[in-house]
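Board notes (copied after class):
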Amino acid sequence: MKRWQVLLVVVALGGVVLYSLRGAVAVGVMRFALPRMMTADPIGDLPDGLHLTLCGAGSPLPDPKRSGPCVGVVAGGDLFVVDAGSGAARNLNAQGLPPARAEAVFLTHFHSDHIDGLGELALQRWAGAADPKGPLPLFGPEGVESVAAGFNEAYRNDQRYRVAHHGAAMMDPEAAGFVARPFITPELGRPTVVWDRDGVKITSFRVDHAPIEPAVGYRFDYAGRSLVITGDTIQSPEIQRMSEGVDLLVHEALAPHLVALMAQAATDAHLTKRAKILNDILDYHASPVDAAETAQAAGVGHLLFYHIVPPLILPGMDVAFLEGVDDAYSGDMTLGQDGTRVSLPAGSTAIELSGD
């Protein structure tokens, strides 16, 4: 037998042995990795600055790369979450931003796709935080009180079970769920500062998502860096004003020509209700070109698309989605998906992108 044949046999036998021992190998890897995982502090390891992660870049329509709307922002070592769509808590964990570290949640509006992950987020924060110091603050315009109360009531039995199982010393019932932090919806041209501590300033401003009221966006400022998250909106002069000179604009986008194709297909299939809904959403979202025009007029450093509609599930759909964007915006842009990260280091003009 030739040497290479002997080597091939040895490798094959080694593979068989390793496969037969795969359970023991997996346990060994766990023993090695778990201590590091348990003591890791990905947030603390971040350099000073503003850091943003898309914990949900999609919409109610299923997209394998984009969960329900969710944006995680780290500033001054604290984690803030803007909206919590389906999959928010799991994505935050996967991206090294444990819900246990959440300082507060900020809602842009109360559409179901922006809030349906709130319950899991609050539960994981309550169970994971060493000392939660009270319920998770839930900021939003008027109406956020009923959202907080509704989730608290829905999770009431679960909270009782966990206290009974683990004890009140571990699962403080006074720290479960949410506490509402409502603010009055800002008037156009009159943004409202809703958070200002430890150098982190968060400003709320009105957006246009009619007939949905109230609806707001948020601007984050920290260490000389800035970013804006629009929430759901059409093209808006208010967003342009709030985004003047910011480092990063995170703008929702719906491609009307692609959604119109879906609406026509639904009509042809006699799916009247689906066609009606698809046609209705065309007039209360910004297009990618709308967002690009706003970014150009405001002179933003980087444009990040999120709340992507429709799902981009076929090769080339990303190209169709972004049609016309390069003509409207001369800066750098990114088509977001779950795990997209942008870092804005303090004392710098750098805009660093990473993630999936």
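Comment from the instructor: The chain is about 35% helix and 25% strand. The chain has a mean pLDDT of 95.
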